User: Fold this.
Amino acid sequence: MRAILAACTLAIFSLGAVMADDFFARVTKIETKDGKTTISGTKGKGDDKKDFTLTVDAKAKIAKGKFNKDDMKFEAGDDIKDGFKSDVFKDVAEDKPLNVYLTTDKKDVVTQILVTGGKKKKKDDK
Assistant:
């Protein structure tokens, strides 16, 4: 009986982990209304490109993303002070998207935003 209960518990926790999602995206809009923040943008490339609009958890981690060469994945670096009020998010728009790595929970609520790219500085030819 204990083995069955343990197996069921393990299956439930495994299912929850599988339903969470991590993906790269280009955020084109950030909107806060009635205390809730939503972000919109695109994910995927080419023909697989899809639009999305997701709610951001009030306790979501917002940080600079850094690439871990050993694990071959992005992880949280330094926290971004002031969250969405930071200069990093100030000019986000359709024509100026921000590259991020998002983590969502099983309810498609964003729990972590890692900024993976910023504005590139133009080099002067002079």
Notes: Residues 2-19 form the longest helix (18 residues). The first strand starts at residue 21 and ends at 33.
